[in-house]
Design a protein that fits this description.
By secondary structure, the protein is of the alpha+beta class. The protein has two domains: 193 residues, Outer membrane efflux proteins (OEP), CATH 1.20.1600.10; 163 residues, Outer membrane efflux proteins (OEP), CATH 1.20.1600. It has nine helices and eight strands. The strands form three sheets. It has a four-stranded antiparallel beta sheet with strand order 2-5-7-8, with no helix packed on it. Strands 1-6 form a two-stranded parallel sheet. Helix 2 crosses helix 4. The longest helix has 70 residues. Belongs to the outer membrane factor (OMF) (TC 1.B.17) family. It is found in: Cell outer membrane.
Length: 436
């Protein structure tokens, strides 16, 4: 009874794998998968917040253009004053109003500091650009990740098809063996071999189904889809450009790769940092104004228990003389950082060129491998048909038949994987250029 139940479940899994997902199926191309990931992947949402933070930093930096305004108020107890002779021989106690208070408003506006504020705003803008380029790089990584999972599902779908087709052939062959056995032409051992071959295929199919469920679940999370959605790959295996040439992809990477753009922007950041450091050599010119109200009036004798108010306005000029010595060293540091940024850009470009070269060679290799494995598949199919004909005419034993089937199965699996590998290497080439 238990054996029959297991057999029934195995048949259901084999022929109706969709029942192990929800009834919702979604056909998707690789581009659609990538676009959905850009909209919903949690990693990109975190990266996008860095842009908002950078924009807010620009707004904060712009506030330096506004005047600084301070207001103060104080209440205090004023003790009696003591007047002492200059030879400390006599002293006189002078009564004072004991309650005192002070109120003041002061405003200061920076007029000139060598363009410090504007340069700081420009630096904050460059940092925003770096945040945007980091987001673009993360988009490339996320797109390639989900496309890789998508292609793994595609590969499993093709492998399932290969296993199913070979299982049908094995079942037909088992029927013939059973007829031979009933006629006394073969032993029970031959029937067992045929049944074991089908069991091995069932095991392979079951493993593929479970692997697909795992990949499908992970991809649903990355794309923001309901967890039970079954993704059906429908990406075309043809029309992938292969004859443009490596120079095209190298130039494309130089123009588009976000890491190269970030390296160039870092040089601009180093330049702007040097400009900001040099503003320390400039004097600070500021305008100011304020109003003060104070009680009591202690500038006359006797002291008046009254409020004294007054206002002032003017300009101030200040200069830190020590910056004549300190700024030179800081500028030297900034120039060293600029040289480092330039060398870093050369390194990034070299790494990008090597990545593009490797990706292009592997893409061409994948195309050639697919052609070779297609020829091998056709040879294995021909060998299978010849061996099958010999077996049906009792000119070959079951072991030869199983060997031919295994060669056919393996060659078909290899070709199915090679087709998906062409797609994988194509998208890897696009990623290496930063244009996925």
């Amino acid at each position: 009874m238990i054996k029959n139940i297991k057999t029934a479940v195995s048949l259901v899994i084999t022929f109706f794998p969709a029942l192990f997902f929800s009834q919702e199926q979604k056909q998707m191309t690789a581009d659609e998968v990538a676009e959905l990931a850009v909209q919903n992947h949690q990693q990109l949402k975190v990266s996008a917040q860095n842009i908002d933070i950078a924009k807010q930093n620009i707004s904060i930096t712009k506030l330096q253009k506004l005047p600084a305004i301070t207001a103060s108020a104080s209440q205090f107890y004023l003790g009696d004053a003591v007047a002492i002779d200059k030879d400390f021989s006599n002293s006189t106690n002078i009564p004072m109003p004991h309650y005192g208070s002070s109120y003041a408003v002061q405003a200061t506006q920076l007029i000139f500091k060598g363009g410090l504020v504007n340069k700081s705003i420009e630096l904050a803008g460059l940092r925003e650009q770096l945040s945007e380029l980091d987001l673009e790089k993360n988009k490339q990584d996320v797109k390639f990740l989900v496309i890789s999972n998508y292609l793994d599902i595609y590969k499993i779908v093709n492998q399932q098809s290969v296993f199913q087709n070979n299982k049908k052939l094995a079942q037909e062959r088992l029927k013939n063996i059973q007829k031979f056995y009933q006629q006394g032409m073969v032993t029970r051992n031959e029937v067992i071999r045929g049944e074991l071959a089908i069991k091995n295929l069932d095991q392979g199919i079951l493993t593929l189904i479970n692997n697909r469920k795992i990949l499908n679940y992970n991809l649903n999370i990355a794309l923001g889809l309901p967890s039970g959605t079954e993704i059906i790959p429908v990406e075309s295996l043809t029309n992938k450009e292969s004859g443009i040439g490596m120079d095209y992809y190298v130039n494309l990477a130089h123009d588009s790769h976000p890491q190269l753009k970030s390296a160039k922007t870092n040089i601009d950041v180093a330049d702007k940092n040097i400009e900001i450091i040099k503003t320390d050599k400039m004097p600070t010119l500021a305008g100011f104004g304020g109003y003060t109200l104070q009680r009591p009036v202690t500038t006359r004798n006797p002291v008046l228990d009254m409020y004294s108010g007054g206002w002032q306005t003017g300009v101030s000029l200040s200069y830190n003389i020590d910056n004549l010595f300190k700024t030179k060293e800081r500028v030297k540091l900034g120039e060293l950082q600029k040289v480092q940024a330039g060398d870093a850009m050369v390194l990034v470009q070299q790494n990008v060129d090597m990545a593009v070269n490797a990706a292009y060679v592997k893409f061409q290799e994948s195309i050639q491998q697919a052609e070779i494995l297609n020829d091998a598949k056709q040879l294995a199919e021909e060998n299978y048909k010849i061996t099958e004909a010999k077996y049906l005419n009792q000119l070959a034993v079951q072991a030869e038949m199983i060997d031919a089937q295994n060669q056919k199965l393996q060659s078909e699996l290899d070709y199915a994987n090679a087709e998906i590998n062409v797609l994988y290497q194509y998208y890897n080439l696009l990623k290496s250029t930063g244009t996925l």
